[in-house]
């Protein structure tokens, strides 16, 4: 038996979907793509002192519609939280998101594969604001190897629905097939255009391995901000192979966030993987 046959992959996906609203999540700035940098901003989305956010009602409606399309239970009360972390694309040093009281919970999504239907459980759908866009100034335009980075705040505050699945996927092809058919569903119900090349649909893949027949979960890593079905499949395959090689060599998998470079096929560590307590969630009165 080969090393790859001794292990099975356990994969869950977190999908960030830009909602089809005219304005941002908490202010009246226009949602835009490819406009001149830093032209759609205001004191709210730039986090000027004293600026107060106001929730976009249309974003809430589209978030509920997303949950209904996925068979979720819609919450009668839902709370926004401040998700604290310091990074240059987040001017407040926290993101307005949701934590323990999301808009939608539960649900499932059935998709087709060559061997028939498969169903993946949906953990939750919650609303949040997008971060600004980092522009990496290098030959490849990617973070790895960039000498400088600039920030475009036009995207900061854009309404997002984050769809979180249970770890029910077992291969890179599973993940790609699921994401393709989820995108088609979201387009059909009109919540997002899901244009991956424009960043209005991005996926993070949580990947771990375990011996075939085991029910315990292994240590997971996260492949961040994947904007192509092909890149998702290739990145997951590369990470499964990397984890198997580590385990077979007697080493352990470290929980961390990774970037997959589709040009080279290499994986680069971005940071150690955070847990919920590392973000210090605080309830927000938004």
Question: How is this structure best described in words?
Answer:
The chain is α+β, with helices and mostly antiparallel strands and 286 residues long. The chain has one domain. Helices cover 21% and strands 33% of the residues. It has helices at residues 3-6, 57-69, 172-189, 229-248, 276-279; strands spanning 7-18, 73-74, 81-84, 94-97, 104-105, 108-113, 116-129, 133-137, 148-152, 159-165, 201-211, 221-226, 256-261, 266-272, 282-283. The strands form three sheets. Strands 1, 2, 5, 6, 7, 10, 11, 12, 13 and 14 form a ten-stranded mixed sheet that branches. A three-stranded antiparallel sheet has the order 4-3-15, with no helix packed on it. It has a two-stranded antiparallel sheet with strand order 8-9. A hairpin with a 2-residue loop joins strand 6 (108-113) and strand 7 (116-129). Helix 3 (172-189) runs antiparallel to helix 4 (229-248). The longest helix is centred in the C-terminal third of the chain and has 20 residues, at 229-248. The radius of gyration is 19 Å and the shape is globular. The relative contact order is 0.20. The model has no long low-confidence stretch (mean pLDDT 92).
Task: Provide the fold topology.
Blueprint: H1 3-6, E1 7-18, H2 57-69, E2 73-74, E3 81-84, E4 94-97, E5 104-105, E6 108-113, E7 116-129, E8 133-137, E9 148-152, E10 159-165, H3 172-189, E11 201-211, E12 221-226, H4 229-248, E13 256-261, E14 266-272, H5 276-279, E15 282-283
Parallel strand pairs: 12-13
Antiparallel strand pairs: 1-10, 1-11, 2-5, 3-4, 3-15, 5-7, 6-7, 7-10, 8-9, 11-12, 13-14
Helix pairs in contact: 3-4
């Amino acid at each position: 038996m080969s090393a790859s046959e001794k292990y099975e992959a356990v994969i869950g996906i977190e999908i960030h979907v830009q909602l089809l609203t005219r304005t941002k999540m908490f202010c009246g700035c226009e949602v835009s793509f490819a406009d001149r940098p830093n032209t759609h901003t205001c004191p709210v989305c730039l986090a000027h002192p004293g600026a107060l956010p106001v929730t976009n009602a249309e974003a809430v409606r589209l978030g509920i519609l997303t949950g209904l399309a996925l068979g979720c239970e819609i919450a009668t009360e839902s709370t926004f939280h401040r998700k604290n972390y310091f990074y240059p694309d987040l001017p407040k040093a926290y993101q307005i998101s949701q934590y323990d009281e999301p808009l939608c919970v539960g649900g499932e999504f059935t998709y087709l594969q060559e061997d028939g239907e498969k169903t993946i459980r949906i953990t939750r759908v919650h609303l949040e604001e997008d971060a600004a866009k980092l522009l990496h100034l290098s030959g490849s335009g990617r973070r790895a190897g960039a000498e400088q980075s600039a920030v475009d705040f036009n995207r900061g505050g854009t309404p997002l629905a984050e769809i979180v699945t249970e770890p029910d996927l077992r291969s890179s092809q599973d993940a790609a097939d699921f994401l393709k058919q989820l995108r088609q569903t979201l387009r059909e119900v009109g919540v997002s255009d899901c244009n991956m090349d424009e960043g209005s649909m991005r996926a993070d893949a949580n990947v771990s391995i375990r011996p075939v027949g085991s029910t315990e979960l292994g240590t997971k890593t996260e492949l961040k901000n994947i904007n192509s079905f092909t890149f998702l499949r290739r990145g997951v395959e590369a990470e499964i192979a990397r984890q198997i090689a580590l385990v077979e060599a007697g080493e352990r998998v470290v929980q961390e966030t990774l970037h997959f470079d589709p040009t080279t096929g290499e994986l680069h560590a971005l940071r150690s993987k955070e847990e919920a307590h590392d973000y210090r969630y605080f309830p927000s009165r938004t």
